[in-house]
Design goal:
single chain, alpha/beta, five-stranded parallel β-sheet, 5 strands, globular, binds 1,3-dihydroxyacetonephosphate
Length: about 140
């Protein structure tokens, strides 16, 4: 592969897709709408969200445990290891979760490691249509002073 080809080839991103129960329909609709683009990337999800994406939309996706059973933490750990590039997490602003601390931990490491993160459709639309999807960006810890 020539240098030029390498530069112009869109880079596959590793995208984590997660939604709380009241937001799963919203996420599934968004994934359906963007299926063509998403199919060009590596997808990861928490158990139930990932299974819905696999079963209803026939997209290949690696499923971790369900969120309440540690799935958020598994994805957080992938972020720490530098193995997730984008986080789409439609969390529920109206209902407390039994695993709120795990949710907070995931969102914390996403900020810490400068991971582009969307928690609603408007932001997810920006991310998926962004030049960021074609680039690599700094994944070092962002120190906020
Ligand atoms: O609870 C979740 C994220 O905090 C999502 O988990 P599920 O995809 O297994 O429902």
């Amino acid at each position: 592969m020539s240098k030029k080809q390498r530069r112009t080839m869109p880079q596959k991103k590793r995208i984590a897709l997660i939604a709380h129960d009241n937001r799963k329909r919203d996420l599934l609709e968004w994934v359906r709408f963007n299926k063509h683009v998403l199919s060009r990337h590596h997808l990861f999800g928490t158990g139930t969200t990932g299974s819905l994406i696999k079963d209803e939309l026939a997209l290949p996706i690696h499923c971790f445990n369900s969120g309440p059973l540690g799935g958020d933490l598994q994805i957080g750990s992938k972020i720490v290891d530098g193995e997730i590039d984008v986080l789409i997490f439609f969390w529920d602003p109206l209902e407390a979760q039994p695993h709120d601390v795990d949710v907070k931990a995931l969102l914390r490491v996403a900020v810490l490691y400068n991971i582009p993160t969307a928690s609603n459709r408007a932001t997810a639309d920006f991310l998926i249509s962004s030049v960021l999807m074609e680039q690599t960006y700094e994944r070092e810890i962002q120190l906020m002073k």
